[in-house]
Each structure stands twice: as structure tokens, then as C-alpha cells.
Amino acid sequence: MLIKRKAPWWNVFYLIEVISGLLITMKHFLFKKTATLQFPEERREYSDRYRGLHYIKTVNNVENCTACMLCPTVCPAECIHIVAEERADKEKYPARFEIDLLRCCFCGMCEEACPKDAIKLSNIYEMAQVERIVLEKDVLLDQRGGK
Amino acid sequence: MDFPILWMKIAVVLVGLLATVPIMLFVERRGSALMQDRLGPNRIGPFGLLQAALDVVKFLFKEDRALRHTNQAYFTLAPWIAVVPAFMTFAVIPFASSMDWDGRHVSFQIANLDVGILYCFAIASLGVYGIIIAGWASNNKYSLMGSLRSSAQMISYELSMGLSVIGIILSFSSLKLGDIALGQGQAFFTVFGHTIPKWGVLIQPLGFILFLISVFAETNRLPFDLPEGESELVAGYHLEYGSMKFALFFMAEYINMAVASALVTTLFFGGWQMLPGFPYLHHVLFGSAEFQTQEIARVGFEALSFLSKIAFFMWLFVWVRWTIPRFRFDQLMHFGWKVMFPLSLLNVVLTAYLVMKGVL
Amino acid sequence: MNAEIIAFIALSTIALVSALLVVLRENPVGSAFSLILSFFAVAGLYALVGAHFVAALQILVYTGAIMVLFVFVVMLLNADKPVLDFLKTSKWIKMTGAAAGIILLIVTGIALQPARTIQATGPWSTEQLIASGGHTRVLSLSMFSDHLFAFELTSFLLLAAIVATIALAKRRRS
User: Fold this and answer.
1) Residue A81: which H helix or E strand, with range?
2) Based on the structure, what is the number of domains in chain A?
3) What is the CATH number of the domain that holds A118?
4) B323 touches chain A (CB under 8 A)
């Protein structure tokens, strides 16, 4: 629907509005600081609550995870796959722990559900890869920031 | 006709026009970025200056696809039809006053045609065929829409462009661009001992505004870039084009801009007439030099003035592009026929009356 | 002189061939483009005989404005098939067209008989043109003094055509 707005008669020529618009862009051109972050050199500071790349917390080189299956249960994207096994020093541990990063939506539910404070989301947000990857357990055991 | 000098002038103009393309590419990218509080491409070379050069390399090495659904002959022809008139128009624009050198009279204009401005308009009006043929030969709905829009827009704004210049032609009673540039050096009036020259913008303010707006429409720059219309026509007439063929369209746009700026400068801003302060500088630096050196310096200063005026208008093109949103098509037509056209007619009548009374 | 003759032959060949193509081509858009080329070549011929003003106007008005409108309309109608199919069936229309063409050729030939000499005369000779300040000035002066009545009559004719067009377009809509 065509809405007729009341406008002063000189708006027919657009010129005054155009000139004021030009002054605005010139103001930005000359004086405004650019918002660009020069990425590889400058990096944005995120708070510790940022939900980035996952890792499994270890204490004395033993993973906290007991393969209780709470995180794959709660995961809305169903991207966590755990195979549990037994080993001498630990009654139940994840023999395989895979996170499909392409499916993960970084909601942080796994972190919240974990009773042993094992699965954590780090500050790392650079996850560009050249191939489709599934995070294996050995990668996950890398303590990223270790918060 | 002195042929070596003529060829030299043609070479200078061609190279100069070709050089504007990468320069404008850089200015447009970085300028638009700064206007939007960004930085723009700044990685390749100092300040990102080499980005344009790499773009040229990219265009050269890209695959030139032969699309089966297009009309091959016209499809190949269209970019050339767009780009050649853009170059041709510059032939009649003077970029410095004439000088006597080595006993010869050298004018800094490729051809001083009797029909000057009309030649410019005639050749510039051919450029639209590149767009029309491209859109039609692409055999694509969006492209055809773009070329339809383009043809309607060209007709509408060519009219007011032609009429807005008639005021200038009447005031200087010549169609030759050389005469018009020369005539703008006359004194108009004096304020506190300073002589104000008779620049076109002072005697034809309305004509200047109308001409500037029409020129924006004729070059398809942003408030009037409906043939391209990224948001609704994807890319309009050059949607199917890639590699060097696209680059030719790109060149045509920027060279048209350069020619349009040169025309605005010549008609309304004194052409090669020196900028304020330059005559003084010339006097101080070369006042005591030999006559020959003095002449060459004068031509240099004039060419510099001309270039800086063109540069300002090129910048204006970029500035306006990143400020004003696109017109809707009905707004475009309304503006062209119901605002621009009557106003340019009014300007013609007014100027004719003033010229008859001997005011101008 | 030699270059002039070569240019003349080239331009007139282009003009004639593209004019033929206008009639012979099936595709309306293609024939419109041929017409543009023909007009352009004719403008080149004008420029060759030194009538720069007429050449510029030829390009500006015919090639630059009217043909754009032509192409616009042809594209808008999307006439991919030949619109004038009935021409192929009716023998009478064909014959009338041919006769009209021949008569036009004869009339033009007779009308141009006095202008067979290459040398321009009166105010149109090169010396006179230079003396009176250029082709444009001479043309405008003669148009607005000696031939003012014919000029105004022509513009009146065009005005009548515009009024008629508007009247026709309006009637069809209601």
C-alpha cells in the first residue's frame, strides 16, 4: 500500500536531504574510528563464559569423565558419541569419546549436565578446518585454557 | 594536422583513462569502507594499493565461459559496445589551454569539433546499447529487466541532460568545449578586489544541479543504478558475465564516470582554468623563467587544475554512491519527467531571457 | 583523399547491408540492432562530407534516443516470433510495398538531381563556413531565419502526432 507522508514542499528536490546525508557519510569518513578488528594480529577478548571448542578436563593426567552418558543424552544436536570400558585404575572410562563439530551447536548443555566437571567448553573460537572432522578423545584431552 | 603530437595526445588520454580504473577501484573500496566505519582491503601492498592490480590478474586468468543459452555473437559484442564509446567521448574535452611551442601551435585537445558537446552526448548515448544488448543476449529474466530499465532511464534523463546544458551553450554562444572552457576565464564580477571568474556553476546554478543529477543517471551510478539493482535484479545486465567480459563492463562504468566528471568540470567549473592560488604560484615559481619554460609550467598547472577538479567529481560519485539508497523505478520516472524535465525547460527559458537582456 | 574514399565505401556498405538485414532478419530485436548499425553508418557518411552537426544529431536523436525506444518496445512485447506473419500470405501487400519502394527511390533520385555535384555551394562552401563561424552557426541561422516557417511547421506536425498518439492511447484504455 502506498502511504502518503506529509513532507515539506522542498523535499520534492531531495537536495537538502541529500546534502545532509552526504555530510553524515563524510563525518564517518573523516572522524569515526573504524570498528574493524585486524584479525590475525588483533584478537577479540572473550569472557571465560564463552562457549568454544570442547575439551575433557584431566586431573593428574587422568580424565574426569566416567562415561556416565549424561552428555550424549542431553545433547540436542546428538553430536557426542561415547564408548565406555573398564580399565585397571578406573571402573568406567570412555574408551572412545567423539564430538562431531559440524553438528555441535555449542549450547553448553553437556557442560551443564556433566556431574564430574569433565566436559568443558573453552575460549577457543577458531575452528576453521580443511576437512570435516570429528574430535577424537586424544584431541579432546588437550587442556585448552584449562579453566 | 600534426600527426605525432596528435598520437601523443591520444596515447596520453587513453593511458590516463585506463589508469583511472584501478585508482578508482582503490578509492571506491577504501572510501566506502571508511564511510561505513570499516577498513577495506588493506593487506596487499602498502595500504592495499596492489589489490586492484591483483584483481586485474584474477580477471585475466578466470575462465571465460561460453554459455549455451546466450546469443553468442551479441553476448561477446556487448562489453565492447559499452567500453568503446566511453573512451571516445573524451576526444573533444580540452585538458589544458593551447600553447606555442617550437613555433607550432599545440592545443591540448584531441579534436576541436565544431559540434563539441553534441558529439559528447551522441557518443555517450551509444554506451547504453552495451547494456541493452548484454541484457538481451544473456537470455535471462533479470538481465532483460536490467536492460529494459536502463533503456527507459537513459531516454528519460538524456532529455534533461541535453536541456540543462543549453543554458551554458547560450551563455557562451558556442558548442565547442574549448570555447566554453576559454569563456569561463572571463571576469564575472569583483569582490574586495578579487576577480570572480565566469564559471558555469556561477551563471548556471540550476543547470549545474540538473546536469549533475542527469549525469549520475546516465552513468548508472548509485541513486540511479537500477539496471544493476543488486538487491532485486541480482546484478542486472551483467549477471551472466564473467572474467574479462565483466571487467570490460566494469571499466566502462569507471571510464564513463571519468568522462562525466571531465564534462561537468569543463562545462561548469572552468575546465582547465586554474584553481584559485595557482596563478600566484605560477608567478612566484616561474615568473622569472624563460618564456618557453613559463608556458610549459602554465600548461602543467592548468592540467593539474583540470585533474584535481575531475578528481573531486570522481570522489563525489563515490561519496554519493555510499550515501544515497537506490530509487524505486516509479520514483525514478516521476523524478525524471515531472521534476527534472520541467526544471530544465525553465532553465532554458530563463537563460534565453537573460541572454536576450544582455545580463549574461 | 584515398582514405576518404575507402571510408565512404566501407560506411555505405555497412549502411546498405545492415539496412537490408533490417528487413530480412526474422528476429525483431536483431533487425532493430541492424537498424542502429545502419543509422550509425549513415551518421558516419554525414561526418565524412563535413556535416558534423547533422552527424551528431543523427546519432543523438535516431541512434541514441529513438532506437533505444524501439528496442525497449520490442523487448517489452517480447516478440520472439515474427509479428507480421500476414505479410507472407498477402500478395497485394507485398506488391504495394515493392511499388512504394520503387516510387520512393525515383522521387528521391529526382529530388537529389540538383545536388549531384560534390562541391557545396552558397553559404555551405568551406570558405563561407569558416568565415561565418562554423557549420552549426550557419545551419542554426538559416533554420531560424530563412526556413523558419518550414521549421515551425515541422514542429507543429510533430506536436499533432504527439496529441494523436495520446488520444489513441487513452481511448484504448477506457
Assistant:
1) strand A80-87
2) 1
3) 3.30.70.3270
4) yes
Q: Determine the residue of chain B that is closest to C135 in CA distance.
A: B114
Rounded CA-CA distance B56/B78 in Å is: 20
Share of chain B above pLDDT 70, in %: 98
Q: Name all chains with 3 or more CB-CB pairs below 8 Å to chain B.
A: A, C
Domain at C16, CATH number:
1.20.120.1200
Check whether B219 has a pLDDT greater than 80: yes
Q: Which of B314, B327, B341 is nearest to B256 (CA)?
A: B314
Torsion sign, CA atoms A68, A71, A77, A81: negative
Mutate to test the interface with B, among A29, A32, A39 (most CBs of B within 10 A): A29
pLDDT, one tens digit for every residue, chain C (174 residues) = 678 888 888 888 999 999 888 888 777 778 888 888 898 898 888 888 777 788 888 888 888 788 888 887 777 776 555 555 555 667 787 788 889 999 999 998 888 777 666 566 666 666 666 666 677 777 778 888 888 898 899 999 999 999 988 888 776 555
Q: Are B145 and B238 in contact (CB under 8 A)?
A: no
3-class DSSP assignment, residue B36: coil
Give the DSSP per-residue string, C44-86. HHHHHTT-HHHHHHIIIIIIIIIHHHHHHHHHHHT--S-S-TH
